[in-house]
Structures are given as C-alpha cells and as structure tokens.
Amino acid sequence: MLRYLAKRFLMILPTIFVPLLLVFLLLRLSPGDPAGMMLGDQATPEQIAALRAELGLDQPIWTQFIIWLKDILTLNLGDSIFFRKPVMEVIPPYAAVTIQLAAVGLVLAIVFGVTLGTISAMKRNRPVDRAVVTSAVLGISLPEFWFALLLIFVFAVTLRWFPVAGYNPPSAGLIAFASTIFLPALALGIRQSALMTRMMRSSMLDVLNEPYITTARAQGLPESKVIGQYAMRTASIPVVTVAGLSAGYMLGGAVAIEIIFALPGLGRMLVEAVGRRDYPLVEGGVLTISLVLAVLNLAIDIVYAWLDPRIRYQ
Question: Residue ranges of the alpha helices (H) in 30-86?
Fold first, then answer.
C-alpha cells in the first residue's frame, strides 16, 4: 500500500508544476505592461520603470523564470500588485469560499447521484426509472449558469426561501452560512449529480446480475443488506472516479456561479487578477487550485484502492 501511495504521490507533481509553468509563460508573453496598468495613465516613464525593477519585470524572461521557480519552491509568492499585501495573506479567504462551495456541491452531487442511481437501477424500466433517466439527461445537457438563474428565480425571487446573492461565512452561524451556500452549491452540483446518477445506475445494473448477488439473495439475506452491504460498495467504484473528476471540475468551473451569486471566491478573484495583470496573485491562485486538486486526486486514489484492493497491486 505504501508503495502504491508513493507512486501516486510522484504522479501528481506534474499536475502542480505544469499549470504553473503555463501561467508563467502566458502572463509574461501576453501584451500589456502590469506596471503601467497598476500606476495608471498619469504615471511617468520613470515611475513605471522603477516599479518594473521592483517587480523584476525588467529582467530577461529566463532570469524571471529562475527567480519564479525558486520562489515557488520556497512558497515565497511575493506581494499582490493590486492589494499591496503578501499573496499568502490575500488568497486564503477567497480560497476558503471556493473550497466550501465545491465541497458542499460535491456532497450534494454524491448524495443525489448515488441515491437516484441506485433507485433507478432497482426500479428498472418502471416510471421511476424513466423519470430519473430523463432528469439525468436534462441535468447533463443544461449548463450550470442556467440552473443558477432558475434556482434564483424560483427559490430566492418567487418563494423567498434564500437570499438572491451574497455570502455568510461559517462563523456567522450554520443557518446563515447554509442559506447563502446551498443554492450556489446545488447549481454547481446538479450536472455532476446527473453524471453520477447515470454512472451509478449503469454500474448497479451490472452488479445486480453478478453471481454473488444471486447467491446472497438465494441464501435469504434481506434485500437492504444485499444492496447496501454488497452491491453498493462494488457499484460505487466508478462513481468514486467520477467524484474525483467532478471535484476538479467544480473548483475550476466555479467562476460563473461565484459571479452570479456574488460570492467572494477564488475563481472570481482570479478573473479580476488576470484583468489587472496581477502576476503574483494569478500564480498564487493557480498554485492553490493545483495543490487542492492534487490532494483530492490522491484522496480519490486511496478510496479507490480501499474499495477495490486489486488496484494496489496493479
């Protein structure tokens, strides 16, 4: 098991470094001068040159790359050009909101996906099955922002059960936090829930036809035990893979949801930082997302190996 984990850990290092390298090159090779943008139109050439020297932008790109690589390895991300504060102080509040949004969305997606997929498989070719399959197709076909606007119209504007936009941190209380995170998380998780529903249904149908399930039923075991203890564990293996991909998708695709619901998240911050050409903040944001994705992928691999021990020895 330790050898398997060490191998998986080494494999996630490129997923952290490659995105950072691409961001470094794209930011520095794209047109525009961040020093000039930061100081404004009234700045003199001398002021712009002084700021470029302070930020290291007057160095050749390979020199900038070596300095950047050393700073990344030591987690010295520098100061944000816009906020004039260390990047490591700016990012955590924004990252916390996005992680909370993605985590709640993923939990909702897994709960609905596994439950509906299992029910659909057990009620195959019945009205419940057809309704679940049709809903899953619609969930996959429609974009998250459409669901977000629909949820706002129904539950915030019409029924007034939730606020239209805004964010309350967990420190404000569970009810206050849930009231502002539930709709965005639901909008973000609906599409992934639909994918998991279809995956769980297909996997469960295959498992229910396995000989050991037939044997368990022939021995007189309760159906709840056959499904819950034997069938669901095996059928959940493909869903674990989908959940890992969904977590990455949610972290990367939360921008539209954060903008629609006015959430102060990392995705929204990154969009604004790119517009300001805030190099250190963009790189810090990408590093944060890459690290979270790497940890998630490692966790999914561990769960996958626990569900199916054969994977550890492949």
Answer: 34-39, 45-55, 61-73
- DSSP for 284-295, please give it: HHHHHHHHHHHH
pTM value is 0.78
What are the pLDDT digits (tens) for 209-225?
A: 877 777 877 877 787 77
Residue 54 identity (one-letter amino acid): E
Q: Which residues are CB-contacts of 286 (< 8 A; sequence separation ≥ 6)? A: 19, 20, 23, 270
Q: Are 188 and 250 in contact (CB under 8 A)?
A: yes
Q: Where are the domains of the chain?
A: 87-313
- Report the top-level CATH class of 87-313: mainly alpha
Question: Would you mind telling me the total number of residues written for the chain in this entry?
Answer: 314
Residue 278 one-letter amino acid: D
DSSP, collapsed to helix, strand or coil, labels residue 279 as: helix
Q: Which amino acid is at 84?
A: R
The encoded tokens of residue 115 equal 């439950």
Residue 142: HSE in the Cβ half-sphere, 13 Å Cα cutoff: 19
| pLDDT at site 79 | 81
Summarised one tens digit per residue, pLDDT across range 135-170 is 999 888 888 888 889 999 999 899 889 988 888 888
* CA nearest neighbour of 119 among 133, 105, 106: 133
Tokens 């987690």 found at: 75
CA 269 to CA 140: how far, in whole Å?
Answer: 27
Longest dimension (CA), the chain: 86
CA distances from 107 to 141, 167, 172, 196 (A): 21, 19, 21, 12
